[in-house]
Amino acid sequence: MASVLEDPTLERHFRGHKDAVMCADFNPNRKQLASGSVDKSLMIWNLAPKARAFRFVGHQDVITGVHFSPFGNLVATSSQDRTVRLWTPSMKGESTVFKAHTAAVRSVAFSHDGQRLVTASDDKSVKVWSVHRQCFVYSLNQHTNWVRCARFSPDGRLIASCGDDRSIRLWDTSTKHCINCFTDYGGSATFVDFNSSGTCIASSGADRTLKIWDLRTNKLIQHYQVHSAGINSISFHPSNNYLISGSSDSTIKILDLLEGRLIYTLHGHKGAVLAVAFSRAGDLFASGGADGQVLMWRTNFDTKPYQDVLQQHSRRSTPDPPPHLSDIHPRGPHLHHPQPSAIQISPTVADTQSTDPHVIELGQAVHSTMLLTGQTHSMTTQSAANSRHSDGLPTRIVTTSRAGEWREDESASRTGSTAGSQAGADRGGRGRREDKEEERGQTHPLEVPSGHPSSLDTVLRHIVQQLDILTQTVSVLEERLTLTEDKLKECLLHQSQILKEVRASGESRRMERDGVEGSPVHFT
User: Fold this and answer.
1) What are the residues whose beta carbons fall under 8 Å from the beta carbon of 8, sequence distance 6 or more?
2) What phi, psi does 306 have (nearest 5°)?
């Protein structure tokens, strides 16, 4: 095990995307890393040495978010094509499509029990989906501009969301009500997430700020401005002691939340850092950038167990378990040697020992479920791609506009014929080595051969899908019938009140008339 004094190191880099990397997430099984890109593809990188990578094709526009399910058997992606896809990370390359948003979807995340998905969209809404039933559940609609990010709390009782209306909102999942709103940002709020205990949320902004809020007191407890450009992504360490952020200033920052200071600045990307993510164990973290690379770093500074840290802090200001970053007293010294400023780490990315993995493109039978404006459709599309990725890629420069949309500009021509032939020779060598490995019976993750489903299985899946659609249709009809009944009751009540008023008025006039007619006449 590494010493607690060791600094983070660049472990590997993955090259295979043809454009900027927008999002990344680790599989809980600690064997895979997923990333989504402007090139519209999902990449599954196997962390085992010399293992193959897989490119999943299906989205029609930029992939903006990616998240593994808690058991690692599903991958969810969101896209500017207005859809969310659930992928099975296998050789089949199958995916299920959800569509209920009317604009680009900016983020997607599983609940911690894996039963639900939450999505955020440019249509100003946050939507919750059922993973098992593969259907839309409910929508949250109080944001007044594009929603950039939404996340479930660890216990599933809250949802945090943020967006271009410069606010961070907290929602109660049982009542569907917004229970709090933080509006201290000077620009778009770009990312939000809960810590592992659910007591705090961290949020980042285009105004270069990073803020941490205590949800028990609804107060801002830490505020950082360590980047020189907007922050695009953040991630809590599982211990809640550290937080990483990626920025358009091309750097990754690591914050020590116990001491409330910046401890590391990492340089590795050529261009904006658009995505950062800790692994579930915290021993690794990944970053993706406008340079099309995915970098995997070994944490190293987290090697002291969190339980040992807790034992050193016996006095706490609140009895609420578990402790969080603001209620540990006294704050012990940091494990690193004192530094007047953050440590700068600049690995030479081009000289790392990583080899580019062989990429297999996948995109077969895609089962689609579409829910839009109350209408339900079922669609099955077929897409297949088996072309191999070429290493000779043009240099890409990604710029951002006021709305935060990423656009590409090719600034260099493709590699010359000599370099191309050399790349071909390298690919040929790798292909021969892989063939030899397969002859020896060596296997790689995600390479288990799987046959096509039988016709019976296909029919059964189709029947289940149609039943789900019928169930959703009945649900919509029930809602409309309920609304009609409510309107009818309201009209009947209104008519009843009018009838009562008419009767009362008529009775009053009759009594007045009877009184006049029945009065005695006196003659003098």
Assistant:
1) 254, 264, 266, 285, 297, 298, 299, 300, 301, 345
2) -65, -30
With contact defined as beta carbons under 8 Å apart, do 135 and 369 qualify? yes
Query: In 168-185, which positions are buried (b, 16+ CB within 10 angstroms) versus exposed (e)?
Result: bbbbebeeeebeeebeeb
Nearest-angstrom CA–CA distance, 212 and 260: 11
- Residue 430: how many other CB atoms lie within 10 Å: 15
**What is the reported pTM?**
0.65
Measured between alpha carbons, how far is 509 from 488 in angstroms, rounded to an integer? 31
Name the strand (E) or helix (H) holding 180: strand 178-182
CB 273 within 8 A of CB 251: yes
Confidence class for position 519, pLDDT limits 50, 70, 90: low
Q: Is 197 exposed, middle or buried (0-12, 13-18, 19+ CB in 10 A)?
A: middle
Please, are residues 254 and 7 in contact by the beta-carbon 8 Å criterion?
A: no
What is the distance between the alpha carbons of residues 411 and 409, in angstroms, rounded to a whole number? 6
Q: How many CA atoms lie within 13 A of 228 on its CB side?
A: 5
Q: CA-to-CA distance for 39 and 41, rounded, in angstroms?
A: 6
Q: What is the pLDDT of residue 407?
A: 41
pLDDT at 293: 94
Return d(Cα 353, Cα 395) in angstroms, integer: 21
* 355-372 burial: b if 16+ Cβ within 10 Å, else e: ebbbbbbbbbbbbbbebe
Q: Residue 26 and residue 69: Cα distance in Å, rounded? A: 10
DSSP assignment of 292-360: SEEEEEE--TT-S-HHHHHHT--EES--PSSP-TTSEESPPPPSSPP-SSPEEE---GGGS---PPPEE
Q: What is the model's pLDDT at position 305?
A: 57
Determine if residue 50 is left, alpha or beta; phi over 0 gives left, psi from -120 to 50 gives alpha, anything else beta.
left
Q: Give the closest residue to 53 by CA, choosing from 426, 389, 420.
A: 389
Please give the average per-residue pLDDT across 406-413, as a whole number: 39
Of the CA atoms within 13 Å of residue 395, those in its CB half-sphere come to 7
The identity of residue 201, as a single letter, is I
Q: 171-200 pLDDT, tens per residue? A: 999 999 999 999 877 889 999 999 999 999
58: helix, coil or strand? coil
Q: List the single range of 96-105, 128-137, 439-448, 462-471 with lowest mean pLDDT.
A: 439-448
Is 80 exceeded by the pLDDT of residue 451? Answer: no
**DSSP per-residue string spanning 199-254:** SEEEEEETTS-EEEEETTTTEEEEEE---SS-EEEEEE-TTSSEEEEEETTSEEEE
Q: How much of the chain, in percent, has pLDDT values that exceed 70?
A: 69
d(CA 287, CA 274): 8
DSSP strand pairing (189-194 vs 200-205): antiparallel
Structure-block tokens of residue 238: 């599982």
- Start-end of H helices in 340-446: 417-439
Which pLDDT score is estimated for 475? 67
